[in-house]
């Protein structure tokens, strides 16, 4: 099996058996909806904090395998992280998706499966939709805290 096949397998595994899927509709969670009209992807992400730690991430929606699987991986990677560390991971992920050098101390494991997306610019929005969603939520969390 070559690396590309292995990566495809990782993506299909998260697509078929997503982690942390399904919203809880709990008021303690903060929720966001985003969509990607160019592919028809729709996603909802919700997050639960304990101080500055991400205690839980849930996601739901419909879309292509790249979009749905990346939401699953995002939830696994960012859960139990400090907000600031999560932001670093998000930044490195965007760098990787754009084909730029990235920090392989921060990004490793299954997430590397998305390196191949660089070759398909039309799919970049699919691969980043769930990450944009959590990014917006995290920015909002920082803002709320600074405001008192
Ligand atoms: Zn898509």
Describe the protein's architecture and organization.
By secondary structure, the chain is of the alpha+beta class. It has a single domain (3-142), classed as Sufe protein. Chain: A (Alpha-Beta Complex). 45% of the residues lie in helices and 18% in strands. The protein is built from 4 helices and 3 strands. A 3-stranded antiparallel β-sheet has the order 1-2-3. A hairpin with a 4-residue loop joins strand 1 and strand 2. Helix 1 (3-16) crosses helix 2 (65-78), helix 2 packs parallel to helix 4 and helix 3 (83-97) packs antiparallel against helix 4 (124-146). The longest helix is centred in the C-terminal third of the chain and has 23 residues, at 124-146. The mean pLDDT is 93. Bound molecules: zinc ion. Residues 36, 39, 41, 63-64, 66-67, 126 line the site of zinc ion. Zinc ion (ZN) binds at residues 36, 39, 41, 63-64, 66-67, 126.
Short account of what is shown:
The chain has helices at 3-16, 65-78, 83-97, 124-146; strands at 30-36, 41-50, 53-62. 45% of the residues lie in helices and 18% in strands. The site of zinc ion has 8 residues, from helix 2.
């Amino acid at each position: 099996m070559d690396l590309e096949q292995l990566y495809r397998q990782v993506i299909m595994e998260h697509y078929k058996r997503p982690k942390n899927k399904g919203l809880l509709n709990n008021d303690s969670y903060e929720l966001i909806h985003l969509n990607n009209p160019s592919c028809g992807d729709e996603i909802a992400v919700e997050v639960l904090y304990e101080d500055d730690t991400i205690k839980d991430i849930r996601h739901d929606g419909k879309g292509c395998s790249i979009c749905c699987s990346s939401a699953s991986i995002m939830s696994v990677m960012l859960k139990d992280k400090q907000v600031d560390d999560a932001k670093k991971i998000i930044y490195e992920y965007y760098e990787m998706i754009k084909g730029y050098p990235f920090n392989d101390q921060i990004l490793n494991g299954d997430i590397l499966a998305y390196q191949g997306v660089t070759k398909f610019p039309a799919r970049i929005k699919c691969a980043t939709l769930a990450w944009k969603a959590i990014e917006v939520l995290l920015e909002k969390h920082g803002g709320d805290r600074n405001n008192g």
